[in-house]
Amino acid sequence: MMRSCLEYAGYALLIFDDPHLEQVFVDRHIGDASRKTQRRKFEIPKIVTKIACFDQKLSKIFKEMYDSRIDFGGHPNPRAMLGAMNLEKSEGEQLISMTTFALAVDPRIIEFSMHKVTQVGLTSQCIFRHIFAERFDCLAIRDEIDALSKEGL
Predict the structure, then answer these.
(1) Which pLDDT value is given to residue 109?
(2) What are the pLDDT digits (tens) for 12-45?
(3) What is the pLDDT of residue 152?
């Protein structure tokens, strides 16, 4: 979900900067050609480049956040899979059982996850403030986001 949040914020910025991309996005499911076009136009490197046009530092933060969300389960990979499993082995290192965790109960994992959700939300809001600058200024949201950013979220 965090990966999707970042991607949708990035998609919104691409569309904001090039409004014809809205139709490309909407037409994704029309056929194979439309799907390929949409995928090509909305690649993560293109989002990173577009964010950099508005804010170099935010672009780097987005890329780091996106890559780490992939590593922690945004796509199947060993770190994500093994991090949610308990492997029980015998003394001879033979695998006895594998248990997959549906929910984490370790307070460190929960705290880490809550911190990352906050960072993803803040990163997404920083992207949206380039799209909705007047609204953010009117509601004084920009000041709050700046204050949070300075605290290192």
Answers:
(1) 77
(2) 999 999 999 999 999 999 999 999 999 999 999 9
(3) 64
Rounded to 5 degrees, φ, ψ at 109 are -70, -40
Alpha helices in the chain (DSSP H): 2-17, 21-26, 32-41, 44-54, 56-69, 78-83, 107-131, 133-138, 141-150
- pLDDT tens track for 96-114: 787 776 666 778 878 888 8
| Per-residue exposure over 36-63, b if at least 16 CB sit within 10 Å of its own CB, e if not | ebbeebbebeebbebbeebeeebbebbb
Count structural domains, the chain: 1
What CA–CA distances, in Å, run from 38 to 25, 42, 61, 126, 128?
Answer: 6, 6, 24, 24, 21
Q: Specify the pTM.
A: 0.80
- Which of 10, 11, 18 lies closest to 62 in space, CA to CA? 10
Strand duo 95-100 + 85-89: pairing: antiparallel
**Are 98 and 111 in contact, with CB atoms under 8 Å apart?**
no
Q: Is 87 helix (H, G, I), strand (E, B) or coil?
A: strand
Contact 99, 122 (CB under 8 A): no
Q: Which domain holds residue 67?
A: 2-150
The total number of residues written for the chain in this structure: 153
